[in-house]
Amino acid sequence: MSNTNIEGLAIARKDPSPSYSLWVLPNKTGCVFFDIKRYDVRKAVELVLHGSEIYDPNDKRNKGRKPNFEVVMGKSRASRIHDGTAVLRVPTEIYYRFLRWKRRSDKNDIVVHGRALLVSGTPRKAPPGVEQVLNKALYTGPEKDKLREQIRDLARQVCSRVAQIQVGVWYKQENPPPNQGRTFSVEYERVFPRHSAANISIMYDHKLIRIEIRQETERTKYFILVKFAIIRKLGLGFDEFGQPFIIFDLHMPPNFEQESRAPGIIERNRRYKTRSRISALDDAHARVALYAYHLRVLLTDADDLIKFEMICHVTQCEPRPIRVERVDAHPMQFFSQRDLYRVQRWIKTMDWNNAFQIEAYLRCGLLNTHDLLFTLQTLIDEVIRDYGAQASELLRLFSVALRMRKDDESPSDCLARVRSDYPTIKPLRLAQGYISCHHVIITPSRMLLEGPYPMQSNRVIRHYQNHDTTFVERFICVEFRDEDHLAYRWDTDVDGTWFLQQRVGGILREGFELGGRGFEFLGYSMSALREHSVWFVSPFRDPVEGYVTAEKICASLGDFSGFLRTPSKYAARIAQAFAMTDSSLKIRRDQWEEQVELGPHTDGVGTISPDLADIIWAAKCRMTRSFRENRVKPSAYQFRFLGYKGVVVVDHRLKGIKMRLRDSQRKFPVHNVEEAEFEIARSFDCPNQVYLNRPAVMVLDNCGVKTQTFLDLQENAKASIYHSRHSLERFRELLASYNLGSRFQLTFIIKRLAKLGLDFDNDKKTIRSAFFERLIRYSTNHSLRDIKFKARIPVPNSYQLVGVADEGRAYINEGAKEDDVFTLKEGFVYVCVQEYEHEPPKYLKGTCLISRSPVIHPGDMLRVYAVGEPPEDKLCFFGGLKNVVVFPAVGDRSLASCLAGGDLDGVDICDFVIEYINSDVMGLLADRHTVIADQSKEGVFDERCMKLAALCSKAVDYAKNGQPVDIYNNLPKRLLKSRAGIPIPNIHLHDPNEPIEGFPIALPGEVPPLADAISCVLIPLVQSTLNAATEPREVENEQPKELHAHYVREMQYICMTHTLVDAPDVRLTEEEVVLGTILASYCPGDEPPTADRLRAGLSNAWAAWGWAQRHRDKEFIESFSLVVLGVVLDCLERLGGLPEA
């Protein structure tokens, strides 16, 4: 039978596409029954079409998938649920099987509640899209749809009338009566008289509560959308006048939208969009929305409150509403224009770093204006006077304490406690190349302030920092985020473009004032733009260059005249100066030159001499923290230099200090510069782990890789995770595989402990640590979660490397004999990997699979042949190169360009930034690709997936070429409504709070200080290395105490400010910070330590270890001990104090 389809499916032969109508009536009596529902018909059809006489589960053409079908009930004109008919749509082959089954016996009927349905077929064209769904989509049963429709219908029927909407904040009254809770301050109020309408309802499919405001005198509707996920508490009750109310205690502000029927407004909206995202309901609300977002909704009828409570339980609204006896509400007007002006006038008299923290209290909802003006103003002025230059640091710690304070602690008592805990503060010493940067997060309704945080510097900031270190605070990092701190996303019928132009565009073009300073948009790096993050600068007077503005800074970076008509390219060129880099050395004009391209193969790649590479690596090592574990000297670097960018690779022919760049690396010219900094963006000193993910699995599966292969990899990954609790070495392998604990150098520490003979199961050297046990639990949970929800499975014997070109052809072009030069042929590559300096290099030889992220198209994975170790009797460019993949420089097209991406290197700019944020759809495209590939029988070869792959390729380069992806007209639809991310079913996630059964843990007080296994092993080694027969000093040493106090305040700030929700009862655990990548890097010094400095460091670290063991009840003492232990082990290793085995 030919592979044709009925009812709008893909037709292989030119047949009509009939659809088949089912009349819901008995065959004999002819009576129509209107009470039969769609669910009943679907179940009856399912019983027939999935029965053994029509569906053969062993037929390989089915791929184990049951036949799909669709039932559409006829619409009734008499207000019934249907008109007594239904249309059944099926694939062609199933249709013919069904007809044969029907003719086989008079008893073969589709029966609903004992009633046989009359079936009649009429050829006609099915609606567009049905064909693809029936032919390719997985079948889903009607049970879930039935329950969902029932709940949805009930939710639509419950719509409560609103009398008033109030927006405000919570506060504690001074000297409140006993047992009185918080009070609600009404900062904005809107009353709805009889001639207008406002109601509150639940949108079940969207998991949110919607408040609709409709003015009869206007042609506009407004919506307040409160997602279930942002509700902290939901209270129901009656006020003192007996009026019912609903009160929302929220984690973050709700979304605001408007819908207009005015012709001018609708014309503004693009295409079919009917609603717009807005920042506030009106001007009065806009002023308050910066600081207040909790809601109090008064209803007109008490019965509506009962109905709302009922529907919340039916729709499974979480958290469930609770009845409250009384919640006082008063119009305190904390954020009136008068009080806000008084606060601004006060903070303009102080240093800007202090003013930033005061602004943060208000904008993050920690304090209100009355707290500042009437309770804390004098106390804060005293802090500024007493702490001097470190006052801003104490004020930052005060913000942490405010987030953590108990309900019965007043702000003034909280500040007094912080001053008591930190009578003096020492400044944080940052690593070379790092700055302390303030951060601003612009959301649709608020401006949140955080920091300062340590972050890597860039060329522009370093330039002015060299003139005056205080100029660093003139540069501020600004992120544009939705209220949940994630990227902007909205429904397809919401016009986000207009909102971005108003909100984001307004900030970019007009700037903003903060702490008495005006800030203007400066620029961004390409990596930061992907996170919707940009730089702003406050103009300042430089002693060398005079008055410095954003315009002046950009003009000084280079000659961009050739890109003024192309904003995306103009911005991309400027972005080079804002890339986070390390400055390694300065290169003179006579030390670098341009060389010719080798066709398309050397796009983005240049060369450097071995001597220059040694200098770069030495500078990089000075700027990097310790515990490098004998990393291999890189063969390639990602760099920025003047107007050049890309990758440079070592060329052993070059002598002295020499660098040869290419025209493809020059993004813009810089004139009249005799010496410039060589900036390191990344050094490739070790191979990275390769992981599978859902798109990669989908592509490999559709290209013929057996399913069992993936299952074996998954089971091996699971086994290694579960076995991590059995030994230190297994635990180290888990941490390394999933890159956990890298900032705390956890793999280094564990490897050295195992080298000393310590383990989790050793009679004499057993580590009985509850903290290690918790680290294993959290690591296990994190790793299993990655596998379950992302299919992130490590692939053994696979490596993630940077690509460079074979320069052997350049040797030949410069005079070398072709027979004397070993070069790569088309389809061949060279790969040599080496993880540690003391290990031998590994040359890959044989057939390999090579890919480049993101893997979307089947062509993003290519089969190549690795040549192994090159011959010694020939001149070879790549001989000795490590941790790179070398591509051939022959053929019409480069091998790299065949993969996702392209090259090898890894106006009105405001309009471009806005359009980029609006068109940043890479995640959406990848998600849709995974969904369709999973639902379609053709997998990644489905024409929709091919189209999405092309869109992904376009989206990857959007930041460079400025060509956006139009998803509104080009985004393929899903075959089914189900989404991606279906978890892998056979992976059980363990609760990280459940202890590991049988793991050795010492009870509190069971082991005296310095009697634990780690201390017992280290004591003789430290004594021998220091030539002193002493244990850590018993006397109280102030240095460890000060170090710990500094460490605690940083950890508190990290744990409170990096949570997903802004709530005092939500904070990161110590284990999450240790295993994550949140902590910023910094090192104690810039120069390589001498033996004397190492001994002094070992002595101090050993004293800190002893102090920590005697103070195990201190906050964050476990991770503090881990940091100290790492220093002890590092010093011992550098001084030769650790045994070889």
Could you outline the blueprint of secondary structure elements for this entry?
Elements: E1 18-23, H1 38-49, E2 70-73, E3 85-89, H2 92-104, E4 111-112, E5 115-116, E6 118-123, H3 130-136, H4 143-157, E7 160-171, E8 183-191, E9 196-203, E10 208-215, E11 220-227, E12 231-238, E13 244-250, E14 255-260, H5 263-268, E15 275-278, H6 283-289, E16 294-299, H7 302-314, E17 322-323, E18 329-330, H8 337-347, H9 352-363, H10 369-387, H11 391-404, H12 411-421, E19 434-442, E20 447-456, H13 459-465, E21 475-480, E22 494-495, H14 496-510, E23 512-514, E24 517-523, H15 526-530, E25 533-537, E26 540-542, E27 546-548, H16 550-555, H17 567-575, E28 582-588, E29 592-595, E30 605-608, H18 610-623, E31 636-641, E32 644-650, E33 659-662, E34 675-683, E35 688-691, H19 694-702, H20 707-722, H21 728-737, H22 746-755, H23 770-790, E36 794-800, E37 802-805, H24 808-813, E38 828-833, E39 842-843, E40 845-851, E41 861-867, E42 884-887, H25 909-919, H26 922-935, H27 943-956, H28 958-961, H29 967-970, H30 1013-1026, H31 1038-1057, H32 1070-1075, H33 1091-1110, H34 1117-1134
Parallel strand pairs: 8-18, 12-17, 15-22, 19-21, 29-33, 30-32, 37-42, 38-41
Antiparallel strand pairs: 1-3, 1-6, 2-3, 4-5, 7-8, 7-9, 7-16, 9-10, 10-11, 11-14, 12-13, 13-16, 14-15, 19-20, 21-25, 23-24, 24-25, 26-27, 28-34, 30-33, 31-32, 31-34, 35-36, 38-39, 38-42, 40-41
